Amino acid sequence: MTLLGTRPPRHRAAQLLPLPLTALLAALLLVVPLLAGVGSAQAATPVTVAAARATQDGSTATVRGYVVGQPTSSTTVVRSGFPSDYALALADTAGVTDPAQMVYVQVPSAFRATWGLRSNPSLLGRRIDVTGTLAAYFSRPGLTSGTAFAPVGATPDPEPDPEPDPDPPTGGGAHDATYWAPAIGKTGPALESALHAIISRGVTRLSYDQVWGALRDTDEDPANPANVIELYTGDSISENDNGGGVQQWNREHVWAKSHGDFGTATGPGTDIHHLRPEDVTVNSDRGNLDFDDGGTENDEAPGNYADADSWEPRDEVKGDVARMILYMSVRYEGGDGFPDLEVNDTVSNGSAPGHGRLSTLLEWNAQDPPSAFERRRNDVIFEDYQHNRNPFIDHPEWADAIW
Q1: Taking Cα atoms as reference points, which of 84, 47, 143, 94 lies closest to residue 370?
Q2: Greatest CA separation found in the chain?
Q3: pLDDT, tens digit (0-9, with 9 covering 90-100), for 284-314
Q4: Nearest CA to 281 among 212, 343, 235?
Q5: DSSP secondary structure code for residue 361 in this structure
Q6: Neighbours of 178 (CB within 10 A)
Q7: Of the chain's two ends, which shows fewer C-beta atoms within 10 Å, N or C?
Q8: DSSP reduced 3-state for 55
Q9: What is the CA 78 to chain-centroid distance, rounded?
């Protein structure tokens, strides 16, 4: 007699056999597409620089090209004296000098020690593959947020550590063990506090009249020591042709002196870290506007734009302007009888002790790394005049570490 629900052993085996086969087939159906996806990703074909320039749609691609220099503005790519490890330019042919034939590549912090041109100038002329996002950089066709860099024919580097070590020094290395030592390794408010203490210690304050002579030195034209370079126009003008007349140069307060109403008082009003030579009428055109992108191009200073509430400087000095504003925000904290100056994300600060727009300034700081002119200026102020440094010239990455 067979009990209800039971089967002979051979029937149980026959019934159980299809179950694991079914499960196995289902698993294979899930795995095969995944394997196919992995294989296609690994087999991705590099695109040319020309194709990358034509496809700025935010997609991911591997771009193959020759390293032809380092972009320092939307119109300038240097081939020697590289100021930082932040960016490089690729072209389909080695030796190309026209930015219109290049794609600008952002070098993330995890790759700078190996793929930055300041640390590795021998990269110039080499053919490489870079994987990243096809998106504008320096307001030019670009490749940003890179995930892999490799010489052509080599295995790409592994993906970077999601929490890489702090960026290597980009100009202040000579001072890291001494002047900047209390700030090394800090981030956020702790870094800002440490920098404020450092750059406020032992400072020599100039009178407003002494600023004239200091600017003749700090902003000297490298090609003509008898001239100075104006900040916004970029013109070289006789260092002695200063004053208040048309076509003369005067003292531009990059942090507008009305933003906090400190005027020309010894202190923030005479701090040459943010005072620059500028054409009298262009200085007047800028007035006390905050900084941001957009507007109508200035007739006398092409490349500079203004609207009702903001001023956009030429590309070559966008980073300079950003680092001067950030310096002032850290240097003056209200503890020395002057207003607490704070950078913020608005363009309507008026007479309030604020300056903006922070988000734009941080972009400019990254897009326009410190130039040799800017680094020399920082050294001259430190050694011969105020005896303090602008931390964001020595370490541009500290801006993102604070804000």
Answers
A1: 84
A2: 121
A3: 999 999 999 999 999 999 999 999 999 999 9
A4: 235
A5: H
A6: 7
A7: N
A8: coil
A9: 16
